[in-house]
């Protein structure tokens, strides 16, 4: 089963764009706050959020019904223009349509109650719909049912409450985090846009959405999903690719009236840990020096150039044994050789040792030229609904 996003045949590339949203990113980051065990890649952020004020943490947990399992359409990327500010998005949230907002904010309870999400948001004001939603919510958490009951009576008040919670979370924690992750989103957008222009849609999908495939004959992006659906993207204004740091899996918005989009974890988050470029260099160098005899040879040729015969005499080894060790050191670029008449002299490549030390610091995440630890010095004592994971 798949979702098929059909692009205009005349200019499919022109129907693909890129966007991201501070409000959306803040909202889904809250999943790491309320369910840290489900999002182990973001445990550092979960730990940092332990320092949130107790009042804010309680409010986040109480309102988590709105984002814990699905993302309401009123947080869709693109509703407030391209690359909006958090202030723009929260202002729009407060002004959102009552019917659509209530419908979206009760999505988490609709599957059990209604046999699947309703398609007409006006059902939100139907008394029977409200009773069944509240009964389901009450069975899970009476406090959540109270929040929803107040929301049915005052939809704008519920939206303001959620907006106030997000604003407090932004001010207390996420504004600084946004400055850290926004360059990552910018980089993903820039890379994706460059691939789209130079290599086309297939290459863009391979890099950003490897789960998806490009049907060049049908001009369609095809994404595996638990159901079948075909969407005329051209008729709906185009397709947005939305990079995210906090999305844990590919999410798709394909329902009216929301912008058609694919939310995708950035490659840095999706890719497994891979060896750094310096890892092989470090491993080869340490492997070559990780033998007592070869370490002695390295020290001897660091003092002065020496021949195989001289090293064999000093170390009381056969020349063939010394030759084997020298070949290992030579393959790792630890030593270099030059002919001096009858003899071949070996000398240490001091610059390689320096590079090896720098590469080791990089692969361990240490600053360049990190000083050795010293003793302490005495001190003077003077803070189908949208965005379901594939």
Helix and strand layout, with pairings?
Layout: E1 2-6, E2 16-18, H1 22-34, H2 43-48, H3 54-62, H4 86-95, H5 98-105, H6 107-114, H7 127-140, H8 142-153, H9 155-199, H10 201-208, E3 213-215, E4 220-224, E5 229-232, E6 239-244, E7 251-253, E8 261-265, H11 267-270, H12 277-289, H13 292-303, E9 306-307, H14 308-315, H15 319-331, E10 335-340, E11 343-348, H16 350-363
Parallel strand pairs: 1-5, 2-6, 6-8
Antiparallel strand pairs: 1-4, 3-4, 7-8, 9-11, 10-11
Q: Your description of this structure?
A:
This protein is of the alpha/beta class. The protein contains 16 helices and eleven strands. It has helices spanning 22-34, 43-48, 54-62, 86-95, 98-105, 107-114, 127-140, 142-153, 155-199, 201-208, 267-270, 277-289, 292-303, 308-315, 319-331, 350-363, and strands at 2-6, 16-18, 213-215, 220-224, 229-232, 239-244, 251-253, 261-265, 306-307, 335-340, 343-348. The chain has a four-stranded mixed sheet with strand order 3-4-1-5. Strands 2-6-8-7 form a four-stranded mixed sheet. Strand 10 and strand 11 form a beta hairpin. Helix 4 crosses helix 9 (155-199) and helix 12 packs across helix 16 (350-363). The relative contact order is 0.13.
């Amino acid at each position: 089963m798949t979702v098929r996003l059909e692009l205009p045949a005349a200019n499919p590339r022109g129907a693909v764009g890129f966007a991201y949203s501070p409000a959306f990113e803040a909202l889904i980051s809250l999943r790491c706050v309320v369910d840290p065990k489900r999002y182990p890649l973001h445990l550092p952020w979960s730990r940092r959020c332990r320092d949130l004020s107790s009042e804010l943490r309680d409010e986040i947990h109480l309102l988590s019904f709105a984002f814990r399992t699905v993302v309401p359409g009123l947080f869709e990327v693109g509703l407030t223009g391209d690359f909006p500010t958090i202030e723009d998005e929260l202002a729009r949230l407060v002004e959102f349509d009552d019917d659509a907002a209530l419908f979206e904010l009760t999505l988490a309870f609709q599957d059990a109650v209604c046999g699947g999400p309703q398609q007409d948001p006006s059902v939100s004001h139907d008394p029977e719909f409200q009773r069944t939603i509240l009964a389901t919510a009450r069975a899970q958490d009476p406090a959540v049912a109270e929040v929803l009951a107040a929301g049915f009576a005052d939809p704008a008040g519920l939206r303001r409450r959620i907006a106030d919670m997000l604003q407090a979370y932004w001010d207390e924690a996420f504004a600084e985090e946004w400055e850290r992750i926004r360059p990552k989103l910018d980089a993903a957008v820039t890379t994706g846009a460059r691939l789209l222009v130079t290599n086309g849609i297939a290459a863009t999908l391979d890099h950003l959405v490897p789960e998806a495939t490009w049907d060049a004959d049908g001009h369609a992006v095809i994404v595996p999903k638990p159901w079948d659906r075909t969407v005329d993207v051209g008729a709906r204004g185009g397709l947005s690719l939305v990079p995210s740091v906090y999305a844990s899996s590919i999410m798709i918005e394909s329902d009216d009236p929301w912008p058609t989009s694919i939310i995708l974890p950035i490659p840095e988050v999706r890719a497994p840990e891979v060896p750094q470029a310096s890892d092989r260099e470090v491993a080869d160098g340490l492997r070559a020096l990780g033998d007592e005899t070869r370490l002695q040879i390295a020290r001897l040729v660091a003092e002065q150039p020496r021949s195989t015969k001289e090293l064999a005499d000093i170390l009381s080894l056969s020349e063939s044994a010394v030759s084997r060790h020298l070949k290992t050191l030579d393959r790792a670029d630890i030593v270099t050789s030059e002919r001096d008449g009858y003899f071949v002299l070996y000398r240490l490549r001091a610059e390689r040792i320096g590079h090896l030390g720098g590469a080791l610091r990089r692969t361990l995440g240490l600053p360049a030229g990190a000083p050795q630890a010293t003793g302490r010095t005495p001190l003077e004592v003077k803070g189908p609904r949208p965005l379901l994971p594939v």
